[in-house]
Design a protein that fits this description.
homodimer, alpha/beta, 60s Ribosomal Protein L30, Chain: A, Alpha/beta knot, 2 domains, five-stranded mixed sheet, 10 helices
Amino acid sequence: MIEKITSLQNPRLKQLVRLRDRRPRDEAGVFLVEGYREIRRALEKDVRLDELYFSPDWFLGENEPELMARAQAAGAQLFELSKDTFAKAAYRERPDGLLAVAPQWKRTLADIEKGSGPELRSDRNSGPDPFLLVVEAIEKPGNLGTILRSADAAGCDGVIVCDPVTDLFNPNVVRASTGVLFSVPCVVEESAPVLAWLRRRGIRIAATTPAAEKLYTDADLRGPLAIVMGSEQYGLSEFWLKEADLPVRIPMAGQADSLNVAMATMITLFEAVRQRGA
Amino acid sequence: MIEKITSLQNPRLKQLVRLRDRRPRDEAGVFLVEGYREIRRALEKDVRLDELYFSPDWFLGENEPELMARAQAAGAQLFELSKDTFAKAAYRERPDGLLAVAPQWKRTLADIEKGSGPELRSDRNSGPDPFLLVVEAIEKPGNLGTILRSADAAGCDGVIVCDPVTDLFNPNVVRASTGVLFSVPCVVEESAPVLAWLRRRGIRIAATTPAAEKLYTDADLRGPLAIVMGSEQYGLSEFWLKEADLPVRIPMAGQADSLNVAMATMITLFEAVRQRGA
């Protein structure tokens, strides 16, 4: 028996809307996964879904019932929404009639240690040495999502999100990551313990800064490596800059802000991939 | 004497709203430039502005009057809008009280020929050989704008937009390009004459396709070069694929669509920059 929600005053509906904000999200320990593609990817990666809200009035294709059945089989409770209640629940401009609630998870640095247990990912191509991305205080969810996609495409072993302004479970991070959030191991941690952990493991730190003399293509990006990127507005903090083993810069021909942090991250990651002989 | 627009029925206001759509935009031969940063960049690049609409109720800073004076001195007619009429005119979610109308321009392939006249750009770093980007049938304005930013940062001599689905003067291209549209020479042309022009000038064609054997980092991207990228949904057409002198692929570790066309373009452009010794 599937509960049907038709009232805009329904408390479950109101809670869905509240979950767009960080505090209620963190208090409830859950987050929103909206859209067919993202929900499918969550299920593929065995991410547990607590609830799945659906509204056939908004469906775009014919595969939705199959996905719903799969979610239900994996333990999700299903709720049917009327067209207008789903419109209220959806945060996307163009909803596709599927919205899930999943429990947040927490990974620690130990989870991305190579050789310290079962590999979180089977499709990494970074070789025997750790290949990590560290991002500091990223503000825009779209940038964080894009950065996760780059790390996925580059085969990073993990992404460490230091001192986040935007939390990983922001609905726009989930969306911009196109579900990569479910596959790339992401750890949220403060900068100081991350630095200590990198030092302890002999992982070199490459940091891009316009002040560096060396081009990123002239630095040796092989071996155990963490690429550290700063925030949109302020760049890397002094904390990381003074610790960088490899301060590097990306050559820029055009206007000062042609490359944003997500673009600079991507370029640096793929230069590392080139050197590492992926 | 500055005309003040306070009625939502004002015909100028209605025309501003219409200019969001391509047909009225092309019929009028103009386009919208919204926002302080974009308008400033247009003025810096001597782009003519026909009209400048402003609404002090929406201003975010204190430099707006200076920019308005500069636009007026350069020939723009000024119009003041009330808060609610500007809200209607603006296409951005967070308007900043400035919206200009500028005449569209048309550049031809001759405009990006090196040595064929005054250089359009003084900040190109691509050396003596042509370094061009060709994009085919890009659909999303955000992608086209991001691609223009990459071409700017990489120091391309020009971007050739073939068979565009999204036109260059779409407001979201202007926005996503952060004004780079005003500085990177962009030519809109059909694929056949572009190919003939490239062949005539001995410019080699590099095309990324997942089917290529060679990695993009193993191809020689020096010398006269055009990097050709296909559309989001279909990739490159057969027309370009069969003409590619250098079919190359980008290695991908993660899920199939981790890299979108804008990201793949950026990575390829910056590998070319590396090889060309920028």
